[in-house]
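Sequence of Small ribosomal subunit protein uS17 (endosymbiont of Bathymodiolus septemdierum str. Myojin knoll).
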Amino acid sequence: MSENKVERVLTGKVVSNSRDKTIAVEIERKVRHPIYKKYIKRSTKVHAHDANNECGLGDTVRVVEAKPFSKTKCWALLEVLEKSVAID
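Predicted 3D structure, token representation.
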């Protein structure tokens, strides 16, 4: 029997790129409050492997779940969707 693995792909914004070949991506999602039925923003920060150091702060990126690269880094950069505007 073959097992079909479903890859988890998330889209978020780069909040840190200070480490070598590593970016921190903030993933935002909306959840519905069980009592008040309003939508609340929740966020999660994941560490992703950026092999070419191509991401900058504020970039919108897509990351995919991968084998662990280190203790906290188990996501890999799939593509850069939108580059942020550099403010000089």
